[in-house]
Amino acid sequence: MSNIPETGRTQRVQIRLIVIQVLVFSLLLTLGGRLWYLQIRNGREYTDEAKSNHVQQVVQPAVRGSILDARGVPLADNETRLVVSASRTELLKMDDDGKGVLTRLADVLGMKPKDVFDKIRLCDAKTAQPCWNGSPYQPIPVTDEATTQQALQIRERAEDFPGITAEPTAVRRYVAPGKANTAQVLGYLSPVTDEEITKAKDTDSPYLRSDQVGRSGLERTYDKELRGKAGVTRYEVDNLGRVIGQAKDDKAEPGSSVVTSIDARVQAVAEYELNEAMKTARKSFDKNTNQNYKADSGAVVVMEAKTGRVVAMASNPDYDPNAWVGGISGKDYARMTSKKSNYPLLNRAIQGQAAPGSIFKVVSTAASVNAGYSFDGHYTCGSSYTAEGHTYKNFESQSHGPITLGQALEVSCDTVFYALGYQQWQKDGGLQPKKNTKDWFFKTAHQFGLGKETGIDLPNEVTGRVPDRRWKKDFWKANKDTWCEQAKKWPKKKDFNTVLAHENCLEGMKLHAYDSINYSIGQGDTLVTPIQMATIYAAISNGGTLYDPTVGKAIISPDGKNVRMVEPHSHGKLPASAKTLKQMEGALAGVATRGTAAWRFGGWPQDKIPMHAKTGTAEVYGKQTTSWFATYTKDYSIVMTISQGGTGSGASGPAVRNIYDALYGLDDSGKQDLKKALLPTPQKSLPKIQHDGTIDAPTIKPYDPNSQKTPEEQTLAAVLGRRD
Amino acid sequence: MAGFSVSRYAPDRGVWGRLTARDSVVRRLDWPMLGSAIALSLIGAALVYSATRGRDSLNHGDPYYFLLRHALNTGIGFALMVGTIWLGHRTLRGAVPVLYGLSVLLVLAVLTPLGATVNGAHAWIIIGGGFSLQPSEFTKITIILVMAMILAARVDAGDQLYPDHRTVAKALGLALLPMVIVMGMPDLGSVMVMAVIVLGVLLASGASNRWVFGLLGAGAAGAVAVWQLGLLDDYQIARFAAFANPALDPAGVGYNTNQARIAIGSGGLTGTGLFQGTQTTGQFVPEQQTDFVFTVAGEELGFLGAGLILVLLGVVLWRACRIARETTELYGTIVAAGIIAWFAFQAFENIGMTLGIMPVAGLPLPFVSYGGSSMFAVWVAIGLLQSIRVQRPMSA
User: Fold this and answer.
1) What is the tally of structural domains in chain A?
2) Is residue A701 part of a domain?
3) A-B contacts at Cβ under 8 angstroms
4) Looking at the domain assignment, is residue A692 inside a domain?
5) What are the pLDDT digits (tens) for A635-693?
6) Which of A508, A629, B78, B316 has the greatest number of C-beta atoms within 10 Å?
7) How many CB atoms lie within 10 A of CB A246?
8) How distant is the Cα of B156 from the closest Cα of chain A, in angstroms?
9) Contacts of A43 in chain B (CB under 8 A)
């Protein structure tokens, strides 16, 4: 018999079998735990990963809405271009990764094969432009400038070009109807950035990789409306990218159209006249600097006085917005952003700020009346004014004796406002200000809407500046270190800058007499934008309402059924009684008939179309004077400025007169021909919308600048030297 | 009284009667184990079908190509099990030297021009007609059988309490021979399974602790040596690197594990439903009908379904452990322990690699994965286990 125990098992084997069993089950438990961890604890995460694994999107870009002028003339629309695209997924299935096809394609398109390869490679950290940063499942555009012949070649020889398509595609076009470029107002588009995609991910209008985004102007303000909704087809794909099913299909919805208050014809006139005025200024001699005026930049705004709607807005220098279409070239971009070109991307009507000079005097007048001075009182207009040991000269040292505030506006007498500004400064305690300073001149300026944005529906408007006590203090805090460092050289060095730095270091936080005196005539640290001044003069015209200027007038859905008006909004009332306004109006009419602007309005039918104007010639340290011209009728207000352009009436006068002539259909003798009038009253109605949603657009003729002129008048316009 | 046959003394009965008699073989089979194995095979068939019905490049345009073959393999495997039970493991004991010799010849044949390479492992013999043979699967069985025969011979004869050193050395030598050949294929996964089988067999044989720990040490040293001497192919090193850091090259060597984890993870509690898995339908996981079949269960059947597979495997192993403990002869114990070590490790390695806790190795999941050789081998193993249970004395 064997010595094996009855159980058939020795102790050692039995224990080891139990060890094996424990080991086996701990392995199974490990698997179960890990399975729970992956599926239950982290299941969500893997579900998301699985989704992105197998769903791919193909995007059909929405056709961007048009930007139209007030009568329906397209300022920005889309043209159909032949876009040749390559499908990466198709190409990569080929043995040579599509190299052969692309080389043949390059040959047909007259491109270098390398350029074609580069265009369809995918962007990553190591790949510089050109490269494709959209979805690899998206057909990648190789060119949007294919000719019909090239497109036909590609289509007819489809077997030679697998994965290549040549399709007509809508591409942005800036039409410039009648040469109304409107560049800065329209803005431009560029491809969406990663950052923007991430930011807009959870909003109600997320971006797609292929989106173009409005970067400035109306394209940016109304981007959401114009953009529409891209069509997205979501395909389920397998591991090789082969489509195994269609998950979801959202049809593309074209963007809405934006009807603006811009009238392309008036815009063309404004652009032309601004440019002409600047060209003329550059031919004029500046006695102060002993050289011709530089006229480096300028802007003009034509606004409906009763609504704040912008009829024309021009900024010079400008650029061709079509340069941005299809991706701007490095050369163009460098040119547009260089100092040499003087930054044509800036819309100087809302982004250019300068001291207003005498067109500011309407603010000073209202402030004086609010401070208790009588409008019809008598104020000495001497050739100079002396305060605190400084002498301040009247413009060209003219003297008019005792005059009313109205007359002071009319003849633009500086010394009257010097005295008023100085008196108010003294009343507020001078260099030791009282606790509750009245600050009538600053307060009134703020009430006129200066020192903050007008709220126009264009991006990146600047605020200008009211140099009040608070600003002085803030400015001193920000700069005292620099000033005091520079002031250490004093009194050894006594040049202008060192002396100024010394003074500023010690007393820059205080409001000085000279600050108040200079400010009273819109000089010193005062800054305004043309749009602010247009808004103010429009308000004087309409009885005192400051409107938020608007360019957009209505948003019309692609089917034409849904029209949303952009209604005028007011951001305040002028701080002046109806009586004061009326008195100021009288004075401003006097400027146009008897005063500083009268020589520019010879023959103007003042009885039919009362004209009001104010000229301004602002001094800028180290530069030539800024020309300002602010005007209004009962329907329009027009403000023009030319940097380093000379006097208000001298440089800007003729241009503004010509714009009015075009609006009202006047010739230079003042005879009105309503047939020639572009817009004798503001355009109230919207363009006609057809049943299918298309919008009627009238044809447009380019502006003929000689239509209102006789040769003699042209020579007259060259006469210079009137005081301002 | 070894070797007696119950039926010899039983009265004559009809076939049905014989099958259902209280002392019949059918009644004495381990039904929980058999049921679990059949359930695993059925689940496997569904998973294999789900994974392959859309793989046109593999299934020759016939969505049922793999399903039919899988069914055929399972049927043959089942028949092999029945045959094994009918012959009995004791009868087979006599044939072990022949079987062992055959299996060594077969693995050697792989190294001749008859052999073929599949997925980097030169481990196959193409038979023709779309069938191929992976001899290393059968070698797992013959290693168990030959070691059991040698180690148990003198113990079961009552000469010794435990196998002596000479016997152990001889058994190890016989196991090592086919392992070296398989290593040369190279089929590292199978070698790992065989090493674990050897360990399990030694443990169950009652061999001295010195052998057990010596073997563990030798295994560790061997692994280090293989690594240091650069005996591994590049693809094997890459698999280990990808295991250590799955983020490394997710489109390359890390692709399998990454996609496997996404598929399983996305299943959640209840899964997407059979044939509804997007990752499976989209064929994101390579080798999904064979080595990565568990990912189909993970995605389409979820935690409940994948967990069920673990439970069924657990039942098979639990019953096998019982059989190992309850049989009276060491030979049966060793065979059972070898099979337990084999199934447990192979299942752990296979599922573990899809879950990202083991490096990738080309091993099928017993009963579930598509693959004839593996299917035959595991069913023969089940036959052996059943035979051991049937032939132990009735526990009254």
Assistant:
1) 3
2) no
3) 161
4) no
5) 999 999 999 999 988 899 999 999 999 999 998 888 999 888 999 999 999 999 888 88
6) A629
7) 11
8) 8
9) 265-269
